[in-house]
Each structure stands twice: as C-alpha cells, then as structure tokens.
Amino acid sequence: VTAKIRLMDNDAATLEVACAIEHAGAAALCVHGRTAKQRPKYADRDPAGTGGCAPNWKPIALVRKAVGIPVIANGGIEVHADALRCLEETGAAAVMSAEALLEDPDLFLNVSSPEEGMPMATVNRMLRLSREFMDLVERHPSDLKYPPTKSHLFKILHRLIGVDQAEARKKYDAGLALSLREELKLVLMRCNVHDNAAIRGALDCMEARCLEARTLNLGSSWYRRWRSLNPSAGTNSAVTNVPPQGHRIQSRQLRSSNGARGAVQAK
Questions:
Q1: Is the Cβ–Cβ distance between 189 and 182 less than 8 Å?
Q2: Which run of H or of E encompasses 71?
Q3: Residues 6 or more apart whose Cβ sits within 8 Å of residue 236
Q4: Sequence-distant (≥ 6) Cβ neighbours of residue 115 within 8 angstroms
Q5: Model confidence pLDDT, tens digit, residues 84-109
Q6: Are the C-beta atoms of residues 136 and 113 closer than 8 Å to each other?
Q7: pTM of the model
Q8: What is the dihedral of CA 139, 221, 193, 164, to 10 degrees?
Q9: Cα–Cα distance for residue pair 62/226, rounded to 1 Å
Q10: Residues ≥6 apart with Cβ < 8 Å to 87
Q11: pLDDT digits (tens, 9 = 90+) for 3-35
C-alpha cells in the first residue's frame, strides 16, 4: 500500500502526517509540493492568492529525511530539467508527474533533435504523439459511450489548437476569418469520437495546413492553463522557466484511478 499527500499548512504538520502514514504501514509515500488550497482550480479559495504557484520542494526534502520509506516527489514536473532539479533538491527516491504527461506522454524520454524548439518541429512532435495515441486507441477499443479520445488529443495538441472552441464556432457561423489555430480546433472538434479514421484525417489535415502556413504561432502549454508564470515567494522556480520541449528522461509508467502517472527513479 502506498499513499500520496499534499503539504499541510506548516512543515511540522506535514511531517506529522508523513510519519503517521509510515507508522500505518505504507510502503512508499508521494508528496506533492503544494497545499490543497493551492490547487489551481481552487485558487479563489486561497486568501494568499497562491493558486497555481510554483511548488515548494523543501518540505519534501524534510519528509524524506524524517521517514524510512521511499519518498516520491511530485509537483512542478513539466519538463526533463524539472525532474532532475527536483531529485537533486529533495533527495527523493523518484519523481512523479501527472498533468504534464497528459499533454506530453513521452515527457521522461531523453530525446532531442537539431530542430528542437522550431515551431514545425514542435508540431511534428505533437502529431507523432497524437498518432501513437491513436494506435493505442485502435488497439484497445473503449466500451464507453463517449470515450476520451478527443479529450486527450486536445491536450496533446494544445499548443497548436488550444483556443476557445465556442468563440471559434461563433466566428465561423458569422462568416468571420479564423486563425489557423481556430480552424484546426474546429477540424478536430467536428470529428465523431468513434470515427478513428476521421480523427486521423484531421491530424493529416493539421500537418498539411501547418506545412502550408508562412508562419506558425504556437500557444502556451496545456499544463500552464491555470499556472502562474511568476515565481511565488518562498518557493522554487520549477514551473516558472520553460525550457524548450525535448531533453526527456527515461521513465516507468504508473497508473492510478485518476489517470496517467509517470515516475522517474533517482540513479
């Protein structure tokens, strides 16, 4: 049995909970470097206004020293550099990422290319991941009435098509000109979620339209939709600096009832 917690309001309370979990027999403990009030979607409940802030890894290091079971650090793991920095600062046995993996399923792979950071290279990478995801969709059909196929693709492709869907539809219905991102968002949106061929066709359309475009303007990542770009006082800057996409580290994939999880172990 393993457990996962968020930080309490102070270090002493966090250590008390961690030690109690160890005493109860947990084999490992994952610690997220934010409090429950700092969940981005609960930002309005936090008087300090720290919702979506960078995580605080220092208490994770304290927990690691206080317990005798493996500690997994979580929070602010957006790219490869974050995972390495987190392992160094916390001394944790492993690092876990959750939301970032929904957008970037190969986040922990140590992969780079000479064209890294170029818009079309980023688009190609997103499309590759999307097509690999579609391979899995077809290999493992869902019994759900409304499978989350497009929901996952919207996350993977967010930097390319992450625009307001309702606004794009209003502009289209009014005969107004659409941006490339709006156009491509509607292309995927109109696909029947059970029509895998149509969805693959939408991906092909995106690739062709991007190749035709004179310029490609990509948006920010899905991971940052609620998160502040400015460091918060007293926290590290793990999610405030965005390195180029790529440079990943090898991972073991874990799953939970909440969705995809990934962890990288310290060497």
A1: no
A2: strand 71-74
A3: 54, 55, 56, 57, 58, 76, 85, 89
A4: 121
A5: 999 999 999 999 998 899 999 988 88
A6: no
A7: 0.77
A8: 180
A9: 28
A10: 73, 95, 264, 266
A11: 999 999 999 999 999 999 999 999 999 999 999
